[in-house]
Amino acid sequence: MTAVGIVGPGRAGLGLALALRRAGVRVLGVHGRRRKRVPRPLVLSVGEMPPWLDRADVVVLAVRDDGIAELVRAWRGADLRGKVVLHLSGAQPAAALAGLRPAGAAVAAMHPLMTVSDEPARAAAHFAVATFVLDGDAKAVRAARRLVRRLGGRPVIIAGRNKARYHAGAVFASNYVLALLAVAEDQLVAAGFTRRAARAALAPLARATVDNVARIGPERALTGPILRGDLATIARHLAVLPPIEQELYAVLGAPTIRLARRAGGAALRLAELRRLWKVRPGARRR
Predict the structure, then answer these.
(1) Cα diameter, the chain
(2) Contact residues for 211 (Cβ-Cβ < 8 A; gap 6+)
(3) Are 2 and 57 contacting, i.e. CB atoms less than 8 angstroms apart?
(4) Are 259 and 214 in contact (CB under 8 A)?
(5) What contacts 28, CB < 8 A, 6 or more positions away?
(6) Which of 19, 80, 136, 259 could be joined to 94 by an S-S link, Cβ 3.0–4.6 Å?
(7) Is the pLDDT of residue 284 over 50?
(8) How large is the average pLDDT for residues 242-250?
(9) Radius of gyration, alpha carbons of the chain
(10) What does the mean pLDDT of the chain come to?
(11) Residues linked to residue 27 through DSSP beta bridges, in sequence order
(12) Segment among 99-103, 210-214, 223-227 with least mean pLDDT
C-alpha cells in the first residue's frame, strides 16, 4: 500500500489527509512547524523534517505558494530517492519542485479544483468529488492520478505553462462568485432584507444557476435583462447602485453581452451599456 505523508496542517492538508484515510490510503502523518489541534485519527509532528519521511512513498506539500521555494531549499540535502513529491498549488507548475529532482524525487503538481472549508471533515468530503489538475514528471503524475482516483475524484492533466490561466479560471468560478454573492447580499439588505433572509433567498438562486450551467451550459442557462435587451431595466439598476457596484455591473456586462449573443438573445450592444453607465449619477467618468 502506498504510504503518504503530508506537510502543512492547514485547511488543504488536513482535509486531504482525512479524505485519503477515508479512501483507505495509508497516511503516515501531517507535519508542521508548530503544535496545533488536528482531528482524529490524524497524527501531527513538528520540526524541520518529518519523522516519517524515510517511510513515505508520496509526500504532499500542502503549503502556501510562497512557501514552496523555501521548503525546496531546505530539503535539497534530503534523501528522496524513489519518492514522489507533489504540491497542491493551482498557480505554480510542477517545475516549482525542480530543485528536488537532484535529491532523487519525481515531482508533480496536484491541485484540487475545489473551495476548501475550514472544517476538515467537510473539506475531506469536497475533495472526494473534486477534479484534480495534474502536471509534472510521468512517474509522479501516475502516482497522483492513482491517489485522485482512489479518492473518487477526476484527474485532468494540463501543461505546466497553462497553470496560471487555469488558476485564473478557478478564481472566477469560486473567489469572484463569492465576492459577487456578497455584493448581491448587500443590495438585498439595502432593499430591506435582513442578512439572514438575504442569504436564504440568494443561496437557492445561485445553486439553481450553477445546476443549470452544469446541465445545459451557460448560453441556455442565461436569463435576465441583458439577454432580453431591456435597456430600461438596466438603467434602473445603474441608477440605484453605488459607484463601485455601478462599475462592476458595467464591466460584467461585457462578457454577459457576448454570452447573450451566442445564446441568440436581443442585440444589445456594449456601447449602449457603457453609455448608460457613464450618465448615471456618481458613475466614474472615463
Answers:
(1) 68
(2) none
(3) yes
(4) no
(5) 3, 4, 5, 50, 52, 55, 56
(6) 136
(7) no
(8) 91
(9) 23
(10) 92
(11) 4
(12) 223-227
pLDDT digits (tens, 9 = 90+) for 34-46: 898 999 899 999 9
Instruction: Supply 140's cell numbers.
Output: 509522479
pTM: 0.87
pLDDT of 182: 98
Residue 5 corresponds to which amino acid? G
Cell numbers for 108, please give them: 508533480
Question: Which pLDDT score is estimated for 277?
Answer: 67
Place of cell 488536528: 38
Do 258 and 227 touch, CB atoms closer than 8 A?
A: no
Q: What is the DSSP letter of 58?
A: E
Coil, helix or strand for 156?
strand
Q: Which amino acid type is present at position 242? A: P
Element (H, E) at 278: helix 270-278
- Which pLDDT belongs to residue 228? 87
For residue 66, pLDDT over 70 is answered with: yes
Please choose, from the candidates 28, 61, 31, 67, the residue with its C-alpha nearest in 3D space to the C-alpha of residue 49: 31
Is the Cα dihedral 253, 254, 258, 259 positive or negative?
Answer: negative
Under the phi-then-psi rule, with left for phi > 0, alpha for psi from -120 to 50, and beta for the rest, what region is 138?
Answer: alpha
Please name the fold of domain 3-158: Rossmann fold (3.40.50)
Q: Amino acid letter at 191? A: A
pLDDT at 267: 61
